[in-house]
Design brief:
Number of helices: 19
CATH class of the largest domain: Alpha Beta
Largest sheet: 7 strands, antiparallel
CATH topology of the largest domain: Glutamine Phosphoribosylpyrophosphate, subunit 1, domain 1
Number of domains: 2
CATH architecture of the largest domain: 4-Layer Sandwich
Oligomer: single chain
Number of strands: 24
Helix content: 25-40%
Strand content: 15-25%
Bound molecules: adenosine monophosphate
Strand order of the largest sheet: 3-2-4-1-10-9-11
Radius of gyration: 22 Å
């Protein structure tokens, strides 16, 4: 079995764009700061000042790289796009940091991508065969080369031509001399919203990035929609054949920020409803409901209210360390959990505890937390998970380990209970998750969301993955240089 996940470009990102504001770079810095949860590995901003493009890209957090006035001064212009990148494996190199920038016959173009292309390796192989010289190992660069080799005349037509050749999940923001473009893949897997500030237009992955700059939310960019923002204002195109929307349900479960409104749903409220649904589906007699912070907090509140059991902060999180999950090696990941959480003995000792988290991936977090809660005197520990078992890897832009490493892919609930050491374990059902999202049930054959990580039902063809499974040769795209 070839380990394709280990070396695939893990892109799980936040994007931000501004057209027509004198403080474009400063606004982008703030926007990226609000989107930091979508990617902590690296960030970049490219601006255009009417004559020239300016770029600053760096490894590390937004606050570390963009907080100085000097950096902002070096990014003049009224158009800007920014990107936060998230990666969990492979060496991190600056040439993979977005936005990517290239000079074309029509001028410069910068592009930032949230998502993952599922036929990037195949396209890259073909492009390299035709003479393209790749600068990075990012799947996004395929789009850059497809734009370069397109025979269409306008930038928008070239981009559309490129996007007709790629398969996958993408929300993109592109910027050239005279416009900023936002586009979502036809299924609308990843989010993208449009806002307005002082007459300028803003594009962002989530509404929390509009809030931070005081921009007014206009609307979500629709699945398959391309918006072009230029001196004439904004225009919308629908260059793709209409297909059923499949927004990523995991954005509600974990990935988006709770204060964001995604596709009309407040994420916090959605998580609380999932917690309430979980309480109805999997009640248990206990003394206290405790969230695994921060990811389990809203669902735990929903669970506690629905079950009328006290809610307490029994685990305290140290906010000054990064997310456990992004640490690159197993050894560090284990260490990270200890660094991050501590039990609050006062509310645990002698109690029957219900622990609530949003998901179990490898089971590392749950195992450590359960151990910690028992050591703090819990008499019983019941784990409740506000999503169905994560049984499949995501190929559409949320980084998950390869299938073999997913606890729920190789164990049933009974076996998982033993692994993480709890007295009981229950997950919300897939139908329950849909009900919490306001749907009646998951319609068999016609689900309204992408729920592949829970169902294995992949709505977009996994071209590269299937190629590898069938013994295809990996291109150099798979190696982080
Ligand atoms: P694990 O310790 O591997 O079971 O990971 C579970 C924890 O990671 C949970 O607390 C989740 O909130 C969090 N988590 C789930 N999915 C992701 C993801 N794609 N990226 C980062 N963290 C995640």
């Amino acid at each position: 079995m070839i380990e394709i996940d280990d070396d695939k470009p893990h892109e799980e990102c936040g994007i931000f764009g501004v057209y027509g504001h004198v403080d474009a770079a400063a606004l982008s810095t703030l926007g990226l700061h609000a989107l930091q949860h979508r990617g902590q590995e690296a960030s970049g901003i490219v601006t255009f000042d009417g004559v020239q493009f300016h770029s600053h890209r760096a490894l590390g957090l937004v606050g570390d790289n963009f907080s100085s006035e000097d950096v902002i001064k070096r990014l003049p212009g009224s158009s800007a796009i920014g990107h936060n990148r998230y990666s969990t494996s492979g060496a991190t190199v600056l040439r993979n940091v977005q936005p990517l920038f290239a000079d074309f016959e029509f001028g410069g173009l910068a592009i930032g991508h949230n998502g993952n292309l599922t036929n990037a390796r195949l396209l890259r192989r073909e492009l390299v065969h035709r003479g393209s010289l790749f600068q990075s190992t990012s799947d996004t660069e395929v789009i850059v080369h497809l734009i370069a080799t397109s025979r269409r005349k306008t930038v928008v037509d070239r981009l559309v031509d490129a996007l007709h050749q790629v398969i996958g999940a993408y929300s993109l923001i592109a910027m050239c001399n005279d416009m900023v473009i936002g586009v979502r893949d036809p299924l609308g897997v990843r989010p993208l919203v449009l806002g307005q500030l002082d007459g300028a237009y803003i594009l962002a992955s989530e509404t929390c990035a509009l809030d931070i700059v005081g921009a007014e939310f206009i609307r979500d960019v629709a699945p398959g929609e391309l918006v072009v923002i230029d001196a004439n204002g904004i225009r919308s195109e629908q260059p793709f054949r209409k297909v059923k929307n499949r927004f990523c349900i995991f954005e509600y479960v974990y990935f988006s920020r709770p204060d964001s409104v995604v596709e009309g749903n407040n994420v916090y409220e959605a998580r609380r409803r999932i917690g309430a649904e979980l309480a109805r589906e999997a009640p248990v007699d206990a003394d206290v409901v405790i969230p695994v912070p921060d990811s389990g907090v809203p669902a735990a509140l929903g669970y506690a209210r629905e079950s009328n059991i006290a809610y307490e902060l029994g685990i305290i999180r140290n906010h000054y360390v990064g997310r456990t999950f992004i640490e690159p090696s197993d050894r560090i990941r284990h260490l990270g959990v200890k660094l991050k959480h501590n039990a609050n003995r006062e509310v645990i000792d002698g109690k029957r505890v219900i622990l609530v988290d949003d998901s179990i991936v490898r089971g590392t977090t749950s195992t450590k937390i359960v151990e910690m809660v028992r050591a703090a005197g819990a008499t019983e520990v019941h784990m409740r998970i506000a999503s169905p078992p994560t049984t499949h890897s995501c190929f559409y832009g949320v980084d998950t380990p390869q299938r073999e490493e997913l606890l729920a892919a190789k164990h049933d609930v009974e076996a998982m209970m033993k692994v993480i050491g709890v007295d009981s374990l229950a997950y919300v059902s897939l139908d329950g998750l849909y009900r919490a999202m306001g749907e009646t049930n998951r319609e068999v054959g016609q689900p309204q969301y992408c729920d592949a990580c829970f169902s294995g039902d992949y709505p977009i063809a996994l071209i590269d993955h299937d190629d590898v499974e069938e013994g295809g040769k990996l291109s150099s795209l798979t190696q982080h240089a």
